[in-house]
Amino acid sequence: MQEKAKKKGFSFPYLFDENQKVTNQYGARVTPHVFLLKKEGSQLKVVYTGAIDNDTQDEKPEKTTYVENAIAALEKGKVPVVASTKAIGCTVKRAK
């Protein structure tokens, strides 16, 4: 992941959740299942959860980019219009 992040120029934090503590805490069910967080004081609040966009098969010329829209709203000091969508993807395999 470090190589991919460097190659793609990711400027956001990510984590390797080896023991699935964070996965279980937030309730991720599928991959990808996005949780966009906003810091409020010393706490993190989930302000969007769900799919990246409405085009899981990359077939729609006019997608609704849920995560991008939510981030844009936060950057303007607003609350995302859409706070939750259904995440669609492969089931998260839980460690035993």
Which helices and strands, and how do they pair?
Layout: H1 2-8, H2 21-26, E1 30-31, E2 34-40, E3 43-50, H3 66-75, E4 90-91
Antiparallel strand pairs: 1-4, 2-3
What does this structure look like?
The protein contains three helices and four strands; from the N terminus they run H-H-E-E-E-H-E. The chain has one domain (2-91). The strands form two sheets. The protein has a two-stranded antiparallel sheet. Strands 2-3 form a two-stranded antiparallel ribbon. With 96 residues, the protein is of the alpha+beta class.
Pick out its properties.
96 residues; alpha+beta; globular; two-stranded antiparallel sheet; 4 strands
Q: How would a textbook summarize the main sheet?
A: 2 strands, antiparallel
Q: Helical proportion?
A: 10-25%
The average pLDDT score comes to 90
Number of helices: 3
| Computed Rg | 14 Å
Please state the structural category. alpha+beta
Shape: globular
Numbering strands along the chain, what is their spatial order in the largest sheet?
1-4
Low-confidence stretches: none
For the record, the count of structural domains works out to 1
